[in-house]
Fold these 4 entries.
Entry 1:
Amino acid sequence: MTVSAKAQAQKIVDEAKTHSDRLIYGANDYSDNTLRELQEQVADLGNSLDELASGVQNHIDVLLGQIQAGRNVIATRRGEHRPGGRRRGGRGGFVDLRSPSRRPWPASRTRRAPASPGAGGSRPRRTWDWR
């Protein structure tokens, strides 16, 4: 082979290598951008689910509070309207549903998530952003 042919072959190899490097860079850049977009969508979905679960838990807490208040009213009425005007001893029928030892059902039927530490028993918002 002549020096000219070798130089031309090397030039073709260098151009192919440069073109290959550009294709690899473009493919990696496209993949990274696509994965970043997917990551953001999944993070948004996770945050939306956390907000939904928190909202549902808040409604459950409100309902349990209303149920407890109603049961307390009934217990008070029972204590005040006993035949002979005597009240029952003890708590007058008060049942604190928040106390696990006072629940009228086994703990295995309790579906509330354990309260997390925080002000007012609020659950901290979990974020799914991994950037």
Entry 2:
Amino acid sequence: MVASIYDAFETDGELCAEGVWFAVSLPGGAECRFKVQPTDIDLNPAVRAAVVEYGLALAAKGEEADEEALKPKTLAVACTDWENVNGRDGKPLKCTEANKLQVFTDLPKLTSQVLRYSNNWRNFLAQRAEDIAGN
């Protein structure tokens, strides 16, 4: 039961800044994990800045924004770490800007799944931060 309206809607600034872990199941029972900050521009100034920068760059070229092209760029900013992410050769990929952009561009279904999680503000609620801390 929710004790107050704040329990239902207040996001935790530290949780938004640090990010939360999200697991993705892989074939054979393994999983990879992504640590993501919110992709909601109201909760993440870095994502807001990236979206604005992308829009300005396109406007300077006289082009219109491509929402699909923006998704990997957004996650490259919001994803702060990952675990058990391997390349095509089976070797671990370091969580670098270039690798994040490549993975999220090459794998649109993964991108959609991680975006759904990171765009859900409920994953960054203050109440959830308390649950994670064990309170």
Entry 3:
Amino acid sequence: MNKLEGTEIKLGGKTYTMPELPYMAYEEHDAMTKIVDIARSLDAMKGNPLLNPFTGNTLRESRELIMLALKENYPDLQEDEFVKGLHVIDIVNGIGVLINTELKAQQIVEEDRKNGEKQTAEKA
């Protein structure tokens, strides 16, 4: 199986190539809402390290999204074995990769929208 391009990341002592989330993560797992909520929590924490945005629910949702992405390149990866070696910092780093990937995708969409508007204006 060919691996999808992605970000190399060390999780639980192993190195993985984490691609972007698959489409079904957005449709079936509400990935966009979860990523936005987690990003807001992380942003709220800035300047006050005592505010920990990673509650049990946030950790579960982050882990779920990380697993959905990793399964694209590692379909045989077993979640119960994978989580045994994880630490909270692994989850923070992993969700950070997914947030950055989402931001890049949104920037591309915005640039395409602006270019489309510019071309429409030039034709008028």
Entry 4:
Amino acid sequence: MEQKYKDITFIFGPAGPQDLKDKIAAWVKEGEKSEAEVYAEYLEYLLTKKMENGKHLIDDVFSEILRKEVKVNKYFFTDFMQWDKETGEMKKSPMFNVHPDEMTDIEGRPLDKVITNDMVDVAASMFGYILKTDWVRTYMVLKEEL
């Protein structure tokens, strides 16, 4: 049984490699923003800037998993709040969600493919690898059964 999702959320863990952690720490020292704010802005910039092929990374990843050129069109960035058991404090993680019903092919037509759970897992792996995060967690809101 295939399922159709209303929205798909990607939550990003901390920066992975030490050089990226050092770069973020340096940016924090230069400005007045927290590490969480700087990291979230950095990820949003990478996900939405136009690449050499004229597309955004978000479009590129979904084009790859759907095996056709797509435009995501609607996405939303915010923070995911979670309780840190070690420190006993709330911690922010950057996140964004997409709405599959808003995705189109490059001509603007609605998609004729259903995004599966396996495709979401592949997209999360691609985002994690490209953005160099320790982990990417996903949540999907079910729209209906097909």
